[in-house]
Amino acid sequence: MHVVGTRPNFMKVAPLMREIFRYPQKFDQLFVHTGQHYDYEMSKSFFNDLKLPSPDIYLGIGSGTHAEQTGKIMIEFEKICFKEKPDLIIVVGDVNSTIACALVATKLCIPVAHVEAGLRSFDRTMPEEVNRILTDQISDYLFTTCEDANQNLIKEGIPKQNIFFVGNVMIDTLLGNIEIAKSSIILEKLELRKNNSIKKYAVVTLHRPSNVDNREILNGILNVLNELAKEISIIFPAHPRTIKQMQSFKLVKLANYKENVFSNDLNKKTQNMLTISPLSYLDFLCLMSSATIVLTDSGGIQEETTILGIPCLTLRNNTERPITVKEGTNILVGNNSDKIMSIALSVLKNENSKKKIPKYWDGKSAERIIKILIKNGRL
Ligand code: UD1
Known about the structure:
By secondary structure, this protein is α/β, with parallel strands linked by helices. The chain has 17 helices and 15 strands. It has helices at residues 7-20, 44-49, 66-84, 96-107, 127-138, 147-155, 169-181, 186-189, 209-212, 215-228, 240-248, 252-255, 281-289, 300-308, 323-326, 337-349, 365-375; strands at 2-4, 31-33, 57-58, 89-92, 112-117, 141-144, 163-165, 193-194, 197-198, 201-205, 233-237, 273-276, 293-296, 312-314, 330-332. The strands form four sheets. A six-stranded parallel beta sheet has the order 12-11-10-13-14-15, with helices on both faces. Strands 4-5-6-7 form a four-stranded parallel beta sheet, with helices on both faces. Helix 7 packs across helix 13 (281-289). The radius of gyration is 20 Å and the shape is globular. The N and C termini lie close together (11 Å). The structure holds uridine-diphosphate-N-acetylglucosamine (UD1). Residues 6-8, 36-39, 42, 63, 94-96, 127-128, 207, 239-241, 244 line the site of uridine-diphosphate-N-acetylglucosamine (UD1).
């Protein structure tokens, strides 16, 4: 039984499901969506782009405080487990749906496989860090994306024989879709490509509470983006949480938020930054892969830009994905305006980015995971 809840979960589960479908006589798989994310652009469009089957079970949990969301998922997911009696639960990533379902399963003595285990930011003010630590402690199979994650798990007392370094399933999805994404017309819609020539632009995404839930911080970031927009066009597909915060803090104008991407005014010299609604997977992949620079606070985008060889400025003081800094194109810049600006300008001047592909980020991670589960008699 697979569990998904939020946008970044969908690209992680897609290659796993596809791999299991290769053995139709051997296993059944059930697909549960908790409904943590529910907007079309945050959920349904990803099912379409990734050709994911419709969920067998939709819990429709929606938003709420951490306790409300986690608690509601647990109550509903336990009923599903009683009814379906799965032999294995596969959870991915670090969101509230991940810990909620892992906790229910482990108490019912159902084995849990955690895909993307062992990542640590060492910052427990981040809700995801708490979810990561707890999920790993109660999982039976811990599949990691990099060797430093193995070390983190060993330090926390996880038995070595439960840890498997398999690479990155999110990159399986990126490599499987990069050619398909080229047929997206998002660059034309945003007037970034004309007659086969692509103008230089930056892509921004922000959704972490530490960046968007405080007016002063969000205001500071939007101001520095407006400064940077004097150097390079900026496209900012904003998470619904960020849009809501911009609206309640009265920062919509500063962000130049346009709900309809067709009505952009990027070409007017005075306004070179555009905030739009979230994009589908393929449109975003197309947009990101032709960008000159990316500024983000997302976890997954730090990894995707590393594979694409695009400089990534991460607006956080730490990362649970240090391999993207050590081997990839990621630079941690925090949310200090001067630092963001000076590093962005220096990256724009010197566009040659390092491009080392981390080990096993090769498109075959799901295959490795399913082989291990079969070998261990779990499938
Ligand atoms: C969640 C994950 C985060 C992940 C992010 C990816 C947790 C603790 N956080 O954060 O790790 O990086 O997803 O996108 O699980 N909202 C909508 N429509 C939606 C979903 C959310 O409008 O479809 C708005 C609501 O106002 C909601 C807010 O976004 O209250 C936050 O949603 P929530 O699921 O709590 O967390 P995210 O910020 O999306």
